[in-house]
Design goal:
about 30% strand; Rossmann fold; Alpha-Beta Plaits; five-stranded mixed beta sheet; alpha/beta; disordered C terminus
């Protein structure tokens, strides 16, 4: 199921939480939504599922406009937003079965989703005894009930250990790429989003500052390289003479450059009898995100 967002805007008093946001989320893909606290991620997701009414703009699922609390669309959407609420004195299985009875769906579905999120061994344990990570898994189980066509997930791996994060990442990849489920996921863990997503959006102070694939982002923003030599001080003087800007950490120099300029830079160093130990790409989604949101990332090579 494809999702399109057109000119979405939401104000709270004088504050603009989401500012004229337009996105296109392809069917059967994983779409990563990245931004700092207060950037507008959760507000956007609440409008996507009808929990908040936008001041301006439209959200469409396969061309059908989402209305406030529209059950005709939401029956195909699984949601994990903010901190899920549970009945603490009920077991995990009882919580899920209760929801299924409200929806008029088979209670046996509870066992399938408990297994899916790795809670099959604790289905009869009261939720009040669950750790934070186990409650996160239970929240995911709720969103997976009845095989939704779309998953809207806000920080779903928060509180999970590395093994749990890997398992959830593998599961979401299978749901999207093998079962055709559309997954829209936000996270503070930029490395996880980079590994998981087919497309990403970076949002900052309510505005979209990038949308596309990670490869497209790298191509648009340029590559950062790490250079190490046998004589850092001499290398620094050479870089200074040609007006090269860089960031330095101990014996490593970090700079942005086109790959076509690497041979000229190596020749400059070698001709000055500086041995080059390493030239390697140092790019990551995290470093580009920090650059786009104003944190800075190093210099530009003009060789």
């Amino acid at each position: 199921m494809e999702i399109t967002i057109e000119n979405l805007t939401k104000r709270f008093g004088d504050q603009i939480a989401v500012n004229n946001l337009s996105l296109k989320i392809p069917a059967g893909k994983i779409y990563g939504f990245i931004g700092a606290n207060g950037a507008g991620k959760t507000t956007t997701m609440k409008m996507m599922v009808g929990l908040l009414k936008p001041d301006v703009g439209i959200v469409r699922y396969n061309g059908k406009e989402m209305k406030h609390l529209d059950s005709s669309i939401m029956q195909d959407v699984g949601v994990f937003i903010s901190k899920p609420n549970y009945y603490p004195n009920l077991t995990a299985r009882e919580n899920l079965a209760y929801l299924q009875r409200i929806l008029g769906k088979p209670v046996e579905e509870a066992d399938r989703v408990l297994k899916l999120v790795g809670l099959e061994g604790v289905g009869d344990k009261k939720v009040s005894k669950f750790s934070f990570g186990m409650k996160q898994r239970l929240g995911l189980a709720i969103s997976f009930l009845n095989n939704p066509k779309v998953l809207i997930l806000d920080e779903p791996t928060n509180g999970l250990d590395p093994k749990g994060m890997f398992e959830i990442r593998e599961m979401l990849g299978e749901l999207a790429h093998q079962s055709g489920c559309t997954v829209f996921i936000s996270s503070h863990n930029i490395a996880e989003i980079e590994k998981l997503s087919d497309r990403i959006c970076i949002i900052d102070r309510g505005k979209k500052i990038f949308e596309g694939s990670v490869d497209e982002l790298y191509e648009a923003e340029g590559l950062e390289y790490c250079i190490r030599t046998n004589d850092s001080e001499k290398a620094a003087k050479l870089f200074g003479k040609i007006g090269l800007t860089y960031a330095r950490k101990n014996d490593a120099f970090f700079m942005e450059m086109a790959k076509e300029k690497i041979p000229a830079l190596l020749k400059l160093l070698i001709d000055a009898n500086v041995e080059v130990y390493e030239v390697s790409p140092n790019n990551s989604l995290e470093s580009i995100y920090l650059t786009l949101t104003g944190k800075g990332r190093g210099g530009v090579c003009g060789v």
